[in-house]
Amino acid sequence: MPLNRTTVTHFLIEAMREKHGHGNLTLLLNDVITACKVISDQVNHGALVGALGSAGSENVQGETQKKLDILSNEIFLRFNEVGGHLAGMASEEMDDPYALPEGAPRGKYLLLFDPLDGSSNIDVNVSVGTIFSVLKCPEGVTHPEVKDFLQPGTTQVCAGYALYGPSSMLVLTTGDGVNGFTLDQNIGEFILTHPGMTIPEDTREFAINASNSRFWEAPVQRYVEECLAGTDGPRKENFNMRWIASMVAEVHRILVRGGIFMYPMDERMRSKGGKLRLMYEANPMAFIIEQAGGACSTGRERIMTLQPTGLHQRVPVILGSKNEVERVVSYHKE
Ligand code: AHM
Ligand code: MG
Predict the structure, then answer these.
(1) Do 96 and 220 have their domain in common?
(2) What is the pLDDT of residues 10-30, one digit of tens each?
């Protein structure tokens, strides 16, 4: 490895010094990053370590859990419960906030995560990822309850994801831009490879699960129809389409080359509020996307200003290149 490379640890220490921090967030992120490296290793080994397939159980949202969903959740809990920087954790895979072991050292942060997002892709060896969000625990609270986690996305201290793809990557924001790191498997360190990631304002690429099209609302139907009409339609340009069914991989593509991603309101999901979860999917991704110059909306409201009402609350998500997201939002207003 060239000796002038920056590890994520050095990058975070440097950023902490600039902000005259005390290092608590840096140490917390160190634990989070270690957990991501362990998950990356399990995902990489897949069938070799018997990690594929269903666990035969369901999570709080009634979804069948994969073995790797449960294992990744365990990994995140174990690596983050002893560091002393957290007051509590909440996960897609657990009904209630996780109570830190009695006697474990406590800190001032809350960690929310989806340990393995896009898990329908695990068994077919397509990219999956981990998404996480860090909040401050309300002053004076040592045993946080659900209400303590229900803070709008604008209060996030840090958000990030790990992408387990052809290479494993970590993308982070602490409100000071977005930086991407690639895992060097030989030395076990994430190395800064994508400094200052920004999203082009315009795009000609959209991502949506088109099998749901008959359930979409009119504004989304209109937007997609116009994209599909290409040079013959009102947009007068051809569009490309992608759907990986792995939000981390879609967001990463958008950070690298622009695009728009939509999991919009859907007639079948109206009672649930949408598909994706606000606290550990939409909010962290919105923080990252906005920090990279993009936009993130439900179609009607900015995601990050929503006042959460539940730990596992679902919301419609439209994110990516600013001008396209604004166009979809304007169709919702008409
Ligand atoms: P999960 O947390 O159960 O994996 O669900 C979230 C995933 C996203 O990563 C992805 O964008 C979406 O679900 C795909 O949904 P669908 O299979 O309906 O296309
Ligand atoms: Mg998920």
Answers:
(1) no
(2) 999 998 888 877 889 999 999
Tell me the CA–centroid distance for residue 69 and ligand 1, in Å: 13
102 and 168 assigned to the same domain? yes
Q: What is the pLDDT of residues 92-144, one digit of tens each?
A: 999 999 999 988 899 999 999 999 999 889 889 999 999 999 999 999 999 99
DSSP 3-state assignment of 175? coil
Ligand 1 pocket residue status of 209, Cβ below 6 Å = yes
Domain boundary among 194, 216, 242: 194
Q: Which of 120, 246, 268 to mutate to test the pocket of ligand 1 (most atoms within 8 A of CB)?
A: 120
Could you list which residues have their CB under 5 Å from ion ligand 2?
114, 117
Closest ligand to C-alpha of residue 279 is 2
CB-ligand 1 contact for 201 (6 Å cutoff): no
Number of structural domains in the chain: 2
Distance between CA atoms of residues 151 and 187, nearest Å: 37
Find out whether the beta carbon of 119 lies less than 6 Å from any atom of ligand 1.
Answer: yes
Does the beta carbon of 245 sit less than 6 angstroms from any atom of ligand 1?
yes
Do the beta carbons of residue 208 and residue 27 sit within 8 Å?
Answer: no
C-alpha dihedral (35, 105, 92, 257), degrees to nearest 10 = -50
Q: What is the pTM of this model?
A: 0.96
State which residues form the domain around 229: 205-333
CATH code at position 269? 3.40.190.80
- Ligand 1, closest atom to CA 246? 9
* CATH number assigned to the domain comprising residue 62: 3.30.540.10
Looking only at the bridges linking them, the beta strands covering 260-263 and 317-320 are antiparallel
How are strands ordered across the β-sheet holding 240-242?
240-242, 205-207, 260-263, 317-320, 295-297
The verdict on 178 and 325 lying in the same domain is no
Whether 305 and 154 have beta carbons less than 8 Å apart is answered as yes
Is the pLDDT at 50 greater than 80? The verdict is no
Q: Is 126 in the pocket of ligand 1 (CB under 6 A)?
A: no
